[in-house]
Every structure is written in structure tokens, then in C-alpha cells.
Amino acid sequence: MRRGKIKMRVMQKHNAIMTGNEAVAVGVKLARVGFVSAYPITPQTTIVEKLAEMVANDDLDAKYIEVESEHSAMAAVFASELAGVRSYTATSSHGLLYMHEMLHWTAGQRLPVVMSVVNRALGPPWNIWSEQTDTMNQKDTGWMQVYCESNQEALDTILMGYRIAESQDVMLPLMSMEDAFILSHTSEPVIIPEQEKVDEFLPKLDLKFRIDLKNPMGYGSYTPPDGPFMELKKDLMESMKNSREVIQKVTGDFARTFDRDYSGLIEQYRMDDAKYALIASGTLASTGKYVVNQLRDEGEKVGLIRLRFFRPFPDEEILSAVSNLESVGVLDRSISLAANGFTATEVRSALYGKSDIPVTGFTAGLGGRDVRIDDFLDMFKTTKKGKGGNHYINVKEVK
Amino acid sequence: MFEIRFHGRGGQGAVTASKILALAAFNEGKYVISFPFFGTERRGAPVTAFTRIDNGPILLKTQIYYPDVVVVLDPYVMKSSDVTGGLKENGFLIVNSRKDPMHYNHGYRVATVDATSIAIKLALGNRANPIINTAMIGALAKATGLVSLDDTLYAVREASPSRKEDNALAAQEAYESVQLGLAQ
Question: Could you give the ipTM of this predicted complex?
């Protein structure tokens, strides 16, 4: 292959090849996280391994503790964040489920923790591959949720994540997702932002209600029915609503500072004159874009809507994005048992009474089954027909 | 876009090979992606790894079904897996073998290299489990012209956790000794 112009263009932009998990660890380091709790689970483990190495080599000035379970991993992060220290942990699959109780506590206590989750299927049967059911099961815990498409986005989302979470108008935790292996263990070129610019973009955490030995307070205390319990829950809902504007602002600031524009809660791909489109998230959106380009070359007026945030759910953005379409499909790499796709359900709810567009749901790629180009062609074709319903993609007949 | 698929066994370094190739191409200004089919790998179990190389950002994140190049680190894997499945017409098949390329010719451009002997001679790994991935990348570079020898050696040195010069030597020896079959 020839060297030449391309070399200049790429080499100036990207400065390393790394896996998604390495990119996340670099993001955590650049965010100057001061506390990490770690409990291993495939395919997340290489994130906390990398962080352990950084702490051991004095590349990251953080307290690093190994705990005995994921429940404790979140409990430890809860305590350190409440002490005013920017805190981080990472998990996957059953580890996340074991953490479930503490997720409610962290969000309810309004602690702006950022956690990485490498999406992995839930057993039984035992499976370590990519599927989003683990985090979709946490959609009602008060955590914001971002599904990343590339290693670069996985790194950048840690930086944007803390900015969004720590905003006074939000004060909610955020989980950032990578698809198991397809991002976590895949090497891609990555741009490592300069520390100086990151420091400017992400100021130090200033937690107003942090533990202060000179001014002792109670946290999460007993609250009777007529106490402020219901008011606090309503306030959390308001903050989740407010986060939409903050996400938009922080994404814009990020684009201005680092020259990478993630466009907010959703990304619209070749949607300008599209007649039909697929809604997808994570790496499936990336392959979906590849297939959109193929179909565009054949003259099809097709686009893709990439869901970056699932919480808060971008209902208004989706309503607006589908307004000129004739039909839309929704792809879920997760399964809400007895109710099909999580995203399809949310999209139908968002459009109910506001749009007559037919919504066709697809369940694909469970347990890491590869979603191939032909599977996408199949989904786009079915979406175009606009018949609605839910369809399973590339599933074998069971006798 | 060029798609390369590696077939080997756990412990031979197929996953690292896919990364070394990506790094060499990246150093030449290309966009790259490399990934393993991550299973419950144990030493000796069949392993697959993938590399894509393109001039622009790579959106496609599926496994590779129609490779331009297939690299076989252990020829005995060919007995149990369809390693050439989907290999494009006029594609390259690069095998770690002492045999003449004609032995494997099925209509592909075949190259063979005795990577095992090179690794044993340089004491990479041990006699039972020689580390042959760096030699295979050298053979791939020569057979396909996909990456230059310079960039290959750079990537091998960068990606080798130890014995950087011996690994570079393995790549260079394979580059020089690979046997190229005639295209049919």
C-alpha cells in the first residue's frame, strides 16, 4: 500500500491503537478519578486491571480497593463519592444485577458517580458475549445510560459523563456502555485528549453536601410517609428531565473543545431525505450505518437513528427524527421477557398519540450472535414494508 | 477494505498477530480494527482473530465472512475447521508449513513458511509451544504486500512484550524465506 496524503491525515488525528477497555481506563485517568473500587467479571476485568496498573505506576493518583462483590463495589463508590471524591467502578452482566440495590441508593443519594458497564448476556445458559439486557434491566434505577459505538466514544463518554452527572441541574449517576468484545476487546485507532484541555473541560468535583467532619449530617435517613420522601422522588424525576438540556450543552462544549461532535441524545445518520430508518444503539448502529451506505448506493432512501442515551429517553428527539419517515424499525440486542424489545416499547410509547408511523420491532444478536450484513438487509426490508409487530432475526427453528 | 482472518490455537498468538498487522497498517496511515472471536480460550483450542484495513473509518463491526487473506498458524486446524470458508477468489492463503505451496492450492494464491522452525531456532516460546505469530506476519507482509517490511518490523517490536529483536528477526526471516505459489 502506498504512503502519502492519507498518512498525514490519519496520523495527525489518531495517536494510539487500543481496545475499548483500555480507552475507558485512559478516560478515567484523564478525568482525574480519585477512587476506584474493583471486582472482576469478564469482559469488564481488563478495565480495572489497567487502572490497577496505572495506580501502581503512579500514573493515576487514586485510592484503589479490591472488594468482595459488586454490591460492595458500588457501596464503596457510594461512600467515597459522598466524601467528595470523584469515584469510578466497572462491571458486567450478573455483577451489575448483584449491584442493583446499590444503584438505587447511589441515584437516590444524588451521587454523580460514573460507571462503565460492558454489556454481556445473562444466564442461564452461561454466556459471556454481547447483549444489552443487563443494563436495560437497570433502566428504572435513576441512572443515566449511554451506549457507545466506538472506542473513541467510550473514552470521551467518561469525560462528558462526569461533566453531565456533576452538573448542579442533574446530580445523578451515569453508566456508560460498551458491547462485550465487539468494543471491549477490539482494537481501534483512538485520539487521546490532552490533559490540559480535559482539566479545562472537566473542573474538580465540588460536592455541596459532602461528608464534613466539622459539620456532621445524616444521609439517607428514615423518612415517614408525610416526610419529604415523595417530594425527593419527584425531584429526582425533574433532574432526569433537566439532564436533557445539560447533555445537549455538554456535548456542544465537548465538540468545541475537542472537535468531536456526538450531537446529543441521538445521532441522525443520512436522515435528511430518508423515507425509512432503523433505530439502533451501540456497535449495531455502526454496522447499521455501513449497511445504510450500501443501500444508499443502490438508491434506497434509508437512514439510521443512533440512540446514544437510553436514560433519559430521547422521546422528543425521536418524534422529531421520524416526522418525515414512512416507516421505522427498532433493533434491540436485549430481551424484556414477555414484552420483546426494551427500545421498541419505549419508542412506541414515545410516539403514541403523536405519530401514526408503523413501528416494527426486531430482536437480534442475543448472547453475542453476530448480526451480519444480511441480517440488516432483512431488517431494512421488513421495516420498509411497515407492517409493525416484533421479529426475531437469524433465529433457528427449535423442534 | 481489506479483511484478514487468522486461524490458530490458543497460545500461538493469533490475537496478537491480528494486532501487529493492524499496528503496521496504522503506521502506514490506514484505518484499522482488530478483534478476536473471544471464546473460552484454552491453550490448544482453535482460535480465530480478525483485522480490517481501510482508507477511511471502519463502520463494519461484524465477524469476517469473506476474507481477502486467511492466515493459518497451525495447519492441523485445517482438518477440523473450514479455514478457507468464504475466502475471496484470488485471495491469499498463508500457511505455517514446510510443504510446498502447491500442496495447498485450491485456486487461491498460496504461500507457505516454516514459521515453527524459525521460532524454535530463535527460542521463541519452547519446542512444544513455539510462538510463531511474529514470523507469520513477516510471511504475510511479503506474500501480500499489504504492509512494508519496515512497518512490520516496527509493529512487531512495539507489540512484543519481550525479546523484541528476536521477534523482529523472526518476522524478517519469514519475510525472506516464505515460498510463494503461482496463482492458478
Answer: 0.93
